[in-house]
Design a protein that fits this description.
Its EC number is 3.1.3.16. The chain is of the alpha/beta class and 226 residues long. The protein contains five helices and six strands. It has two domains: 30 residues, no CATH class; 191 residues, 3-Layer(aba) Sandwich (Rossmann fold).
Length: 226
């Protein structure tokens, strides 16, 4: 519902100016800037933690976050903000990354928390959450997609560069939805810890995937997928 035609009342037309006024109103609703979305998967964390607060980053996970932060800083881009999941592992990853990007504001959100976005097709034997999870988590993760992944606002004049630090399931689902692929295929994608996925959203709403789960900036012995 961000297509310019969906943002104006077509019935409200000045009889004197007619099509000329319509064109002007449409132009005011058109996006002009490109959004660059960097989706970062959190680093390796303690799988033995029973509660979220106990699932802190491992020493290797902290190293991975440093490498990811260094990589993002080396791109030389003016990042606008870092939006991160409120879960401990994502928050800690964000804190380490942000040291390499001084001055970039951080925003925490529950929408990006890990969960079960939609029942995968084909099904897998090693991961079978309760069916209710798909309804509870799925609605929230879909809301995150609709809230964060869209063309730039018409008032935005310059291209923007935004970082989202969250979780593998959330990122995989978002990528499928953004590319208009069947979302049920999300579990066929695989993401390393601390990896960078880069989506580009053009003013006309077209989306391109620049990189998926890139960890080429990490030494091989630092790469994990847990």
């Amino acid at each position: 519902r961000r297509e310019p035609l969906a943002l104006i009342n077509l019935k409200k037309k000045n009889e004197e100016t007619g099509e000329e006024e319509l064109a002007s109103r449409l132009d005011n609703c058109k996006a002009k800037a490109t959004r660059h979305i960097f989706l970062i998967r959190h680093s390796q964390y303690n799988l033995d933690g029973r509660a979220d607060k106990d699932r802190t980053l491992t020493p290797l996970g902290r190293e991975q976050a440093e490498l990811t932060g260094h990589r993002l800083a080396s791109l030389g881009l003016k990042f606008d903000q870092i939006i991160h999941s409120s879960m401990t592992r994502a928050t800690e990853t964000t804190e380490i990354i942000s040291k390499h990007l001084p001055g970039v504001k951080k925003i925490s959100t529950d929408l990006l928390r890990e969960g079960a976005p939609i029942e995968p097709d084909p099904p897998v034997s090693h991961w079978k959450p309760e069916a209710v999870q798909y309804y509870e988590d799925g609605a929230r993760i879909e809301a995150a997609f609709r809230n964060f992944i869209h063309r730039a606002d018409a008032k935005q004049e310059e291209d923007s560069y935004e970082i989202f630090v969250c979780h593998a399931n959330v990122i995989r689902y978002i990528v499928c939805r953004a590319l208009q692929f069947p979302p049920e295929g999300w579990l066929r994608l695989s993401l390393n810890n601390g990896s960078i996925t880069h989506l580009v959203i053009r003013p006309n709403g077209r989306v391109a995937l620049r990189t998926l789960g890139d960890t080429g900036f990490m030494p091989p012995d630092k790469i994990t997928r847990t």
